[in-house]
């Protein structure tokens, strides 16, 4: 069997968002599932709209998500000599001809066609045919080059998502494959790239379906059978519109900054158009083991940030505590706090991670260990009273005398105080949480206190 070679080929004309990056995830998963190759190609021929900043977000986003490529990145603007050489070959073989129709003439033609209720399209004025007399070549006009689309018959392919697609050649006019300055156009460059890079599977958005018959014609003119195509349905935003920067889509890297785990985002994205039975939560390794093109969905998927947060929360629960410590340390650094990603921070992550959907939330919880807390007036009024106050003073004195500062010793001190003062656990534990942590709810209070410096706890209990 031929080795699978697939590609991700974004245009750097805007910051890549989750809808775009899904078109990297599926080719990556297919390459990894089959022992194949993923090629990264930057389609930067739109010079005016392309930017290095957009390229950087593509590379940074893929790196963060762990979507490693095997070859590339290749840049189309660096391959112009190759395109022009193949263009010359097609001219020589009679597949390409110069067209001198001006934009004004083309616009007038389209207006006439629309007035006659016809599909607007180039009419083949300059297409050479046996026995046909072409118009006189106008002076001083640089022609475009057009591809001679076969007449009659149709283009057929079996799409791995959409099934059999057939498009009549009579629906297609002669494609412009080079501009007046000789620069090759997108649909032509893509075919040359896919041939040179030996691409076997093209997995891309279904906004490219209309390009596919034209590209197939160019493949065949060059004597190469086209790859297998899989055209993915659009990802919609939460309002049901196509996900785009214009409609509020965020750059992929913003999800990293907002505290999402790469594995959580990969899991969520994979389910936006592919499924493995009813499995909702799975690891990267499971995705690779299960992935195939037969279970790609046919209908548009809708992005749901609440669902993304839920999926990410499940990955937070099973994430290695040392890994989380590194991510939380980075979150603190972005807030101007230097917190080492050591065993203590890892232990804090282990204690609090089940309560959190993102590493931003986890850093919020853990900030009580590193910055002063200000208990809310309402919490103090509700929980600090004539019953709890004497018990807290007695507990503070007991804690001050503890030779070992660990959870079992703290737990015993709390139990002894409850027994001595004849109070219930909530009457002591809740105001204790409020004074030390600034909030009425935390994980097990003995485990929470054990991760504090002892003097910090005693200091926060001074104001009882």
UniProtKB/TrEMBL annotation:
Motif ('KMSKS' region): 242-246
Enzyme Commission (EC) number: 6.1.1.17
Residue ranges of every copy of the Glutamyl/glutaminyl-tRNA synthetase class Ib catalytic domain listed in the record: 3-310
A GO biological process held by the record: glutamyl-tRNA aminoacylation
Gene Ontology CC annotations of this record: cytosol
HAMAP family registered for this protein in UniProt: Glu_tRNA_synth_type1
Name of the protein in its database record: Glutamate--tRNA ligase
Function: Catalyzes the attachment of glutamate to tRNA(Glu) in a two-step reaction: glutamate is first activated by ATP to form Glu-AMP and then transferred to the acceptor end of tRNA(Glu).
Name of encoding gene: gltX
Chain span(s) of sequence motif 'HIGH' region: 10-20
